[in-house]
Amino acid sequence: MAISTCSPQTASWLDEFPARIAALDDSHLRRRRRVVRPENGARLQVDGQSMLAFCSNDYLGLANHPALIEAACAGAQQFGVGAAASPLVSGHSAANEALEHALATFVGLPSALYFYAGYATNIGIIPALVGQGDAIFSDALNHACLIDGARLSRAQIHRYAHADLAALDEALTLSPARRKLVISDAVFSMDGDLADVPALLALCERHDALLLLDDAHGFGVLGPQGRGCLAHFGLSGANASPRVLYMATLGKAAGVAGAFVAGSDALVEWLLQKTRSYIFATAAPALLASALHTSLQLIEHDEWRRAHLNQLITRLRRGLAERLQDSAWQLGASLTAIQPLLIGRNDEALAVMEGLRERGLWVPAIRPPTVPDGTARLRIALSAAHTEADIDELVQALGELAVARQPADALG
Ligand SMILES: *Cc1c(COP(=O)(O)O)cnc(C)c1O
After folding, report:
1. In this structure, which of 184, 304, 329, 366 has its CB flanked by the most CB atoms within 10 Å?
2. Which CATH number applies to 67-301: 3.30.1330.200, 3.40.640.10, 3.40.1190.20, 3.90.550.10?
3. Predicted local distance difference test score (pLDDT) of residue 122
4. Residues with a CB atom less than 6 Å from ligand 1
5. Distance from the CA of 214 to the center of ligand 1, in angstroms?
């Protein structure tokens, strides 16, 4: 017999979930996961069907590299599989220790702290840096984990319009807070554009603020040898500023998993002492650090991966500019591997994604709340694993879909 403490006519909120999920369906906002297996190059087996994928952040094509797989296996042999506890409780492995030094040297900053995930890094380090009575200044298009980290900190949050440095300057001028933190993606994850890092840093200097840069999409890709956005702008090594905290993830171009934050010795030591998502979490397995050592070497030495990627970006942009010139769809002004094709409506973006899927191409539609309302898009992500023929296939398919869909739009 069911025992209920509610009277029959009182609806429990727990019964509302099916209807709430149906509402997501109705507004084309329900997300679904596909079951995937890697095949050759940029091909994936998706729910059993072979597809050419443009949805991966594996920008250099390293995620399935035999040398990384071998290094991970060797790391498992040497260190085991699990780290067993927080690095502050059970110590951290020699592989993780060495990786932190290698990462700091690679990006040209004094110290680094290695985390198991990028999301956990940002939601932890921001509250370690600022709190009640302090102020955070955040670009409107920042990644969710910067936003969540800012909220967790309880500092006052000033959100400025995307890349509007005049607005940022004004907000910094008006803020009475003594501790000011400016947070920004270096490469914006859904638009692919690059923050003006030198200008951000100049503002931070003028207002005695600290600058936290999230280079999840620049590390490995931007700058000489892929050393990231600071090296790209000449702000690393001897030119590094103690006002910059640099954060990057290791599951994208580096092809493995995890993240790190790098900066001055004092800042990194403080983060080690105060970041709750570091202190109260089990360390990343050392086998990942082993794979990451090999990944760093490939990032540094395989210049051809970046050269090939850049050729593909140019080829895609040229091809789409030509094929979509009569279309309402707009390619964003990105020069990075993230190429957003703005469609507008959620259902329209989903229909284009579906049209591509029928042709064996997988390009994700990105919808609100990940992007602002009315800017649903295809997020085309390119990788060194793609071939020129792969790009041509996508351009051709989008050209055909644009022709097939626009007349109906014009009538509607
Ligand atoms: C992917 C991403 C993260 C999160 O990193 P994970 O290691 O996947 O948790 C953080 N910031 C940005 C800008 C990202 O794109």
Report:
1. 184
2. 3.40.640.10
3. 98
4. 117-119, 143, 145, 185, 189, 214, 216-217, 249, 251, 259
5. 8
